[in-house]
Amino acid sequence: LYDAPDEFRPERFLGTTPDPYHWLPFGGGINRCLGGHMAMFEARVLLRTILQDMTFVPETSTGENQKAQTVLLLPEKRATVTLRKRTDLVAKS
Question: DSSP characters for 21-46?
């Protein structure tokens, strides 16, 4: 259904509405994945934990041009970030 399905390319969904029968991360209806709710819970806990202990530090220079794509402004050369421990940033200040 998708070009290069094994690549992480969320931009493939920009400007489109995925067909509900083609994009089913946990299936649907009677055949829905039993672990779907648990997986979403784990994802929320993981994201919360990462954001409490880590921060995103941009790797690109400031002033990067932006391009409009639908209702979003996106970095022209894509944004590159690194996760750093919050204590590392306090020590450098």
Answer: TT--TT--GGG--TTHHHHHHHHHHH
For residue 46, what pLDDT is reported? Answer: 92
- Mark 12-46 as b/e (b = at least 16 C-beta within 10 Å): eeeeeeeeeeeeeeeeeeeeeeeeeeeeeeeeeee
Positive/negative CA dihedral, 74, 75, 77, 83: negative
Is 64 in contact with 75 (CB distance < 8 Å)? yes
Report the pLDDT value the prediction gives residue 20, as an integer from 0 to 100: 66
Closest CA to 72 of 7, 11, 3, 4: 11
d(CA 44, CA 38): 10
